[in-house]
Design a protein that fits this description.
By secondary structure, the protein is mainly α. The chain has one domain: Glycerol uptake facilitator protein (Up-down Bundle). It contains 10 helices and no strands. Helix 2 packs antiparallel against helix 8 and helix 7 packs antiparallel against helix 8. The longest helix has 26 residues. It is globular, with a radius of gyration of 17 Å.
């Protein structure tokens, strides 16, 4: 499998299972209706686990543009590959969210609240305060990326495999994402990944969902810029501590 395919497919599985658990909890008439935050954070952790298992041996399992750029900033990844990785992640996120809609299409049809419908695709703040919403995404992504920097053995079984989430191994990275969700995710829903929010939000805007309203583009910059800022800060701090 090529690095591009691995990032696309790995990210697709992350969003399929991650947004899928949100759909199962919030949409009307599902088996997991109203199961709560613990189920959502657990589902997202396991979704990342699956993505890392698939992509790790081939691409390093970045699965997140913030991770890719931060690794390039500290010299652990080639800048020449950044564009291809980000494109693959973006397309994978869009495809994964589209599949969630297909799987839960009957439940989308019987769910009337437009905010609930949007929640399956993208994040939103529990209390809208853009400054602190942005801070939440920055801190959550900082934790993610900073921990990645301090794991070794990034090459897995292939010394040419670029470092990424795969450097942690699938089980540790699942626990890391779970910890971030449980401890820091209650404010914004912890995107901590620009394409996790942006790609599905585009799909929400395009799909023929009768009850939907706005895709809330006024807020969309927060889960896009916050992760990039948090990842950049993690890269800078790591570089300073290493020197």
């Amino acid at each position: 499998m090529s690095e591009f395919s691995a990032e696309l497919i790995g990210t697709m599985f992350v969003i399929l299972l991650g947004n899928g658990v949100v759909a199962n909890v919030v949409l009307k008439g599902t088996k997991g209706s109203n199961a709560g935050w613990m189920v959502i954070t657990t589902g997202w952790a396991l979704a990342v686990f699956v993505g890392v298992v698939i992509a790790g041996p081939f691409s390093g399992a970045h699965l997140n543009p913030a991770v890719t750029i931060a690794l390039a900033m500290v010299g652990k990844f080639s800048w020449a590959k950044v564009g291809g990785y980000v494109l693959a992640q973006f397309l994978g996120a869009m495809l994964g969210s589209f599949l969630v809609w297909l799987v839960y299409i009957d439940h989308f049809r019987c769910t009337e609240d437009p905010d609930t419908l949007l929640a399956v695709f993208s994040t939103s703040p529990a209390i809208k305060n853009l400054l602190f919403n942005l801070l939440s995404e920055i801190v959550g992504t900082f934790v993610l990326v900073f921990v990645i920097f301090y794991f070794t053995g990034a090459e897995i079984s292939n010394p040419k495999t670029p470092i990424g989430l795969g450097s942690l191994g699938a089980i540790p990275v699942a626990f890391l994402v779970w910890a971030i969700g449980l401890s820091l995710g209650g404010t914004t829903g912890y995107a901590i990944n620009p394409v996790r929010d942006f790609g599905p939000r585009i799909i929400h805007a395009l799909l023929p969902i009768k009850q939907k309203s706005s895709s809330n583009w006024k807020y969309a910059w927060v889960p896009i810029m916050g992760p990039f800022i948090g990842a950049a800060i993690a890269a800078i701090v790591f570089s300073l501590l290493k020197s």
